[in-house]
C-alpha cells in the first residue's frame, strides 16, 4: 500500500530582501504521514528557513506548500500555525505563566471549553512523564532545562496537531539529558505517530531520530533524501560521505534499539534475601556478582563477595555498586555509552515501569556490529557503490 504524503513542497523558494541568491532555491519534497523527517546540513544551508516556511513564520517568495493535498500557501497564516505544533531550541515558554497556562495557550485560542482544556493539560503532563499535581502550578523558572523542554513538547501537542516542527529542540541541553529526552520522544512518537520535520546540525542525532534524512547543501538543495540506513550504506556522493564522517558501523548502532536484540540474563537475588542465600547463589554462578532486585523486580545494585563480607548490619538493598539502566527504546549507541561507564560493562534493561527485563553486555554489542558489517558487504556485492569508502574493518 502506498504511503500517504502529508506535506508536499513544490519548488519552494525564499529570497530575502537585499540578497542576490535565494536562501532556499526551488526545493521540492514529499514528506510521508507519521514519519520524522530530519533536515540536516552545514550552517547557513537554509534548513531552518525551509522549516519555518512550512508554517509560514517565513513567507515563501515563490512555490507552494501542500498539507493533506490542500494548498496552504495563501490560507490565513495564524490559522495554519494553530494546526501545526512548533518546538524550538530556546523552548519559548511564557515566564509569567504557569506550566498549565503555557500548555493551554493554543486550545484557548481555538475556543476549547475549560474542562476539555484542563483534561488535556493533565493528559499531556502524564504523557511527558511529569506529574500534573506536582507541575501544573509551577512556573518555567522552577524547572530544569530538560523539564522545560518536555513542557515545550507538551505545549506543541496541546491541540493534537497532525504536524509538528522541531527546530534543534534538544540542542541547548546537556548530553546526558539530551540522550534521555531523545529516547523519551522516540517512545512517545511510537504512540502518537505525528508527522514531524526536525532540524538539526548533528548527523548523529539525525541518524538516531529520523525515519528519513534530507541532507541539504547550500540554498537547501537536496544532496540525498533517504532512510538513515541507506544513507550510511550508500551515500549519494562525496559531499554526503564527508558529512557523515568516518565510523559508519558505529553510527549504525543508532539505528538499532535494545528492543530489537535478544537480551541475556544475569543471576539475580531478592533484596530481602539473607546473606547466606546470596553466598550460595554467588557460588553457583561464574558471573562474579549478583543483580539485586526489589519486591517489584526493579534493579537496585550489583553485589559481589566483597560486599557480602562487610556491612553485615545492612540489607542487600543497601549495599553494592550502582547500575547502568536503559529502556527498550534506547539505541545501542546510547547503551554502549552507558556500559562504558558501568562497573561490569553491562547495561540492565528495564521496561517503562522499571521492572527488570535482561541485560546487554559487550558481546551483544560486538555481535551487532559484526552483523552490520556483514549486511553492508552483502549490499555492496548486490550493487552498492564500493567507492563510497564506507566499508571499513572497524574494530568491534
Properties at a glance:
alpha/beta, CBS-domain, Rossmann fold, 396 residues, 2 domains, globular, 16 strands, four-stranded antiparallel beta sheet
Quick description:
By secondary structure, the protein is α/β, with parallel strands linked by helices. It has 16 helices and 16 strands.
CA distance, first residue to last residue: 39 Å
- In helices, the fraction of residues equals 25-40%
CATH structural fold name of the largest domain:
Rossmann fold
- The tally of helices reads 16
Known CATH architecture of the largest domain: 3-Layer(aba) Sandwich
Q: Structural class of the helices, strands and pairings?
A: alpha/beta
What order do the strands of the largest sheet run in, or round the barrel if closed? 6-7-8-3-9-10
Q: Low-confidence parts lasting 5 or more residues at pLDDT below 50? A: 384-396
The 3D shape can be described as globular
Task: Write up what this structure looks like.
- This protein is α/β, with parallel strands linked by helices and 396 residues long.
- It has 2 domains: 5-247, P-loop containing nucleotide triphosphate hydrolases (Rossmann fold), CATH 3.40.50; 260-365, Roll (CBS-domain).
- 35% of the residues lie in helices and 21% in strands.
- The chain contains 16 helices and 16 strands.
- The chain has helices at residues 47-54, 77-82, 99-103, 105-109, 114-127, 132-135, 145-156, 175-192, 203-209, 228-233, 238-244, 248-251, 275-283, 305-308, 332-340, 362-381, and strands at 5-14, 24-32, 36-40, 62-67, 70-71, 84-88, 163-167, 195-200, 212-216, 222-226, 268-270, 290-293, 299-303, 325-326, 346-350, 356-361.
- The strands form 4 sheets. The protein has a 6-stranded mixed beta sheet with strand order 6-7-8-3-9-10, sandwiched between helices.
- β4 and β5 (70-71) form a beta hairpin.
- It is globular, with a radius of gyration of 24 Å.
- Residues 384-396 have low confidence and may be disordered.
Amino acid at each position: 500500500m502506498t504511503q500517504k504524503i502529508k506535506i508536499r513542497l513544490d519548488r519552494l523558494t525564499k529570497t530575502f530582501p537585499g540578497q542576490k541568491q535565494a536562501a532556499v532555491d526551488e526545493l521540492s519534497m514529499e514528506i510521508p504521514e507519521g514519519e520524522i523527517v530530519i533536515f540536516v546540513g552545514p550552517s547557513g544551508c537554509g534548513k531552518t528557513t525551509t522549516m519555518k516556511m512550512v508554517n509560514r513564520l517565513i513567507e515563501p517568495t515563490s512555490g507552494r506548500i501542500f498539507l493533506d493535498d490542500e494548498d496552504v500557501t495563501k490560507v490565513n497564516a495564524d490559522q495554519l500555525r494553530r494546526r501545526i505544533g512548533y518546538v524550538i531550541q530556546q523552548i519559548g515558554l511564557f515566564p509569567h505563566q504557569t506550566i498549565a497556562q503555557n500548555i493551554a495557550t493554543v486550545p484557548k485560542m481555538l475556543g476549547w471549553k475549560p474542562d476539555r482544556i484542563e483534561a488535556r493539560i493533565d493528559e499531556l503532563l502524564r504523557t511527558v512523564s511529569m506529574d500534573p499535581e506536582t507541575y501544573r502550578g509551577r512556573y518555567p523558572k522552577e524547572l530544569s532545562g530538560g523539564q522545560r523542554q518536555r513542557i515545550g513538547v507538551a505545549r506543541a501537542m496541546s491541540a493534537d496537531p497532525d504536524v509538528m516542527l522541531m527546530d534543534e529542540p534538544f540542542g541547548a541541553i546537556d548530553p546526558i539529558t539530551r540522550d534521555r529526552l531523545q529516547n523519551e520522544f522516540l517512545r512517545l512518537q511510537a504512540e502518537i505517530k505525528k508527522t514531524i520535520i526536525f532540524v538539526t546540525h548533528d548527523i548523529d542525532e539525525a541518524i538516531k531520530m529520523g525515519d528519513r534524512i534530507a541532507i541539504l547543501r547550500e540554498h537547501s538543495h537536496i544532496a540525498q533524501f533517504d532512510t538513515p540506513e541507506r544513507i550510511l550504506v550508500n551515500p549519494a556522493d562525496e559531499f554526503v560521505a564527508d558529512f557523515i564522517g568516518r565510523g559508519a558501523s558505529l553510527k549504525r548502532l543508532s539505528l538499532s534499539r535494545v528492543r530489537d536484540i535478544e537480551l541475556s540474563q544475569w543471576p539475580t537475588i531478592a533484596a530481602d534475601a539473607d546473606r547466606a542465600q546470596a553466598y550460595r547463589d554467588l557460588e553457583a554462578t561464574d558471573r562474579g556478582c549478583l543483580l539485586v532486585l526489589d519486591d517489584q523486580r526493579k534493579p537496585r545494585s550489583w553485589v559481589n563477595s566483597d560486599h557480602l563480607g562487610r556491612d553485615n548490619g545492612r540489607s542487600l538493598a543497601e549495599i553494592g555498586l550502582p547500575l547502568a539502566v536503559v529502556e527498550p527504546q534506547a539505541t545501542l549507541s546510547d547503551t554502549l555509552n552507558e556500559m562504558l561507564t558501568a562497573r561490569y560493562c553491562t547495561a540492565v534493561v528495564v521496561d517503562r515501569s522499571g521492572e527488570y527485563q535482561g541485560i546487554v553486555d559487550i558481546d551483544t554489542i560486538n555481535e551487532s556490529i559484526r552483523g552490520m558489517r556483514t549486511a553492508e558487504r552483502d549490499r555492496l556485492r548486490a550493487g552498492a557503490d564500493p567507492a563510497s569508502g564506507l566499508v571499513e574493518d572497524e574494530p568491534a
